[in-house]
Amino acid sequence: MARDLQLGVASILRKVAVIPVLVIDRHEDAVPLARALVQGGLTVLEITLRTEAAADCIRAIRSEVADAVVGSGTVLDVQQLKLSEELGCAFAVSPGSTPALIAAARDRAVPLLPASATASEAMRLLEAGYRLQKFFPAEPSGGTAYLSSIASPLPQVKFCPTGGLVQNNAADYLKLANVIAVGGSWMAPGRLIAEGNWPAITKLARTAASLRTAAE
Fold it and tell me: Please, what are the domains in the chain?
């Protein structure tokens, strides 16, 4: 029997309506930022591997914020997938997919959420065993109209759209039958992180966390 390559990912994505996608430049911001988001009801966090501080941020949040479920983002290659596993990430997210990355994921314990932006890409990932996919970049790639149009021909695939999502349009995505959750950074803008304005981020997180109810 084939191994489930995304074991546990569906339950993680269903924990919240919105997953913050975080670019953290300073290690000292990681824990208070995570605490602010968790306090606002967003407990699943994607820490992108775009900064030098990213690995230390993941370690700190996993160690000090007990209620946070931490995954890695912008995983581009085999080395970053390996790092995600070594850091104990609950999941790893890629903005696309490559044959090398998909092959490596079969030998790693950390489940991968690869991205597609076309029907052909979604079909290839489905053939490789990925029923859960990131849809990126969501707004430039057709947004809700595109996802709605492929729901019938590809009912097996559920998406987590990111890219151009904000508070005002995220609920429209969550109303779609083939969307399991959405991702974005609007609830943790760089300006507020730089200011250390954690109460404001908690407030934005709380509003974002209410989107699931609004979409139902």
Answer: 9-215 (3.20.20.70)
Order of all β-strands in the sheet with 115-116: 115-116, 132-135, 158-161
- pLDDT, the chain, mean: 96
Which residue in 52, 86, 134, 139 is the catalytic one? 134
Out of 28, 46, 85, 158, pick the active-site residue: 46
* Tokens of residue 7, six digits: 């074991």
CA R_g for the chain: 16
- CB under 8 Å to 147, separation ≥6 — which residues? 135, 159, 161, 173, 176, 178, 179
Where does the chain have alpha helices with state H? Answer: 9-13, 27-39, 54-64, 78-86, 99-105, 119-127, 143-150, 167-174, 190-195, 198-209, 211-215
Q: Look up the pTM and report it.
A: 0.95
Average pLDDT, integer, range 58-66: 98
CA pair distance 11, 197, nearest whole angstrom: 31
Nearest to 45, CA basis, from 58, 55, 32:
58
Active site residue 134: yes
Reported as a pLDDT band with limits 50, 70 and 90, residue 1 is very low
